[in-house]
Amino acid sequence: MRVYLDHNATTPVRPEVVEAVTPFFTEKFGNPSSMHWAGEEVAADVDRARGQIAELIGARPREIMFTAGGSESDNMVLKASMVQRSAKGKHLITTAVEHPAVRNTARFLGKRGFEVTFLSVDGQGRIDLDELSDVIRDDTVLVSAMFANNETGTIFPVAEIGAICREHGVLFHCDAVQAAGKVEIDVKAMNIDMLALSGHKLNAPKGVGVLYTRRGIRLEPLLHGGHQERGRRAGTENVPGIVGFGEAARLAREELGGDAARIAALRNRLERGLLEAIPDVLVNGDVEHRLPNTSNISFRYIEGEGILLFLNDAEIAASSGSACTSGTLDPSHVLLAMGLCHEDAHGSIRFSLGYGNTEEQIDYVIEQLPPIIERLRMMSPLARKAQGS
């Protein structure tokens, strides 16, 4: 049995989405910028997708700009916002647990004359709203805080962050790549000025993203060239990806409540089974306020890489953290910021559930993982030391 529990890294494209995009590789091949029938009909499909995504987050269609992914959207917001508004100040606020798309862009800006404050988190990965209020200054230009953490699933108090930013006249950017389609998002009610999304986290194709920008906010393009996206982002539109993203957003909006509850039940079944069968484990993050699909568990005294190798032998796919940092041997910066020691951070596994997962698959993981942990601990000097041998 093959089990895929790495949906926070990427998701399978749903059959409905494949069906929706297939014509755009064949008969509907036009360039949406072309002033003839082939372009006009495709332009209408792009606009429809723009409306479908806008409905998912409570935005206006004209506030939706298509990009190549969440990383591009994050880069554009941080770089354009800080450079354009440098006359007001050069202070950027973000959090210690952001995705590398924000974290590394903030570091890039920090090396080029901007000042960056990284908000701390507590042991459950939560920020302190009082700390946010305290560090906002007259020269603060932007606050960038994710909607939900990609490693632990911890959900930030986004509406409260938005209210604080609005009160202080500071722009608020939110990376909602992991949250879209899993929890309710309303950019107006939450006072979100700019928000990033990614299609492949939502059962749409890879290579397409969205940047929501509140009406009245103008960002200098990250890419220069043609007039596409009303002059905001040059380059011929990825029409199949855009149409697929729109269809995936429509499905997510229709199924939001019911599917989230189903997946949360599977996630809880997995956690209960593993905690009952395996001693010395830690569930990381805010278990009361997290994404319904995400479970981050530290298996003490062993390393996550070894666990993943044995899981892969059993045809179970999981992750040791963010897919964007899986090529490094460093422990998760998210878990370290939460106060975990290096050993426990190294022993963490992220299980992220989604479309297609079943109770049978979850029970298979519960059956396969305990002997893997036991075998690895038998070889671990840390485990022997903990047992006093």
- Our measurement of the CA-to-CA distance between the termini, rounded to an integer number of angstroms, reads 37 Å
3D shape: globular
Number of domains: 2
Radius of gyration: 22 Å
Q: What integer is the average pLDDT?
A: 95
Question: What does this entry look like structurally?
Answer:
The chain is α/β, with parallel strands linked by helices and 389 residues long. It has helices spanning 15-21, 37-57, 70-84, 100-110, 129-135, 158-168, 239-277, 304-313, 333-337, 342-346, 359-378, 381-386, and strands spanning 3-4, 64-67, 91-95, 115-119, 140-144, 171-175, 194-198, 209-213, 281-284, 294-299, 316-317, 348-352. It folds into two domains: 3-10 and 256-386, Aspartate Aminotransferase, domain 1 (Alpha-Beta Complex); 15-252, Aspartate Aminotransferase, domain 2 (3-Layer(aba) Sandwich), CATH 3.40.640.10. It contains twelve helices and twelve strands. The strands form three sheets. It has a seven-stranded mixed β-sheet with strand order 2-8-7-6-5-3-4, with helices on both faces. A three-stranded antiparallel β-sheet has the order 9-10-12. α1 (15-21) runs antiparallel to α7. The two termini are 37 Å apart.
Helices and strands in order, then pairings?
Elements lengths: L2 E2 L10 H7 L15 H21 L6 E4 L2 H15 L6 E5 L4 H11 L4 E5 L9 H7 L4 E5 L13 H11 L2 E5 L18 E5 L10 E5 L25 H39 L3 E4 L9 E6 L4 H10 L2 E2 L15 H5 L4 H5 L1 E5 L6 H20 L2 H6 L3
Parallel strand pairs: 1-11, 3-4, 3-5, 5-6, 6-7
Antiparallel strand pairs: 2-8, 7-8, 9-10, 10-12
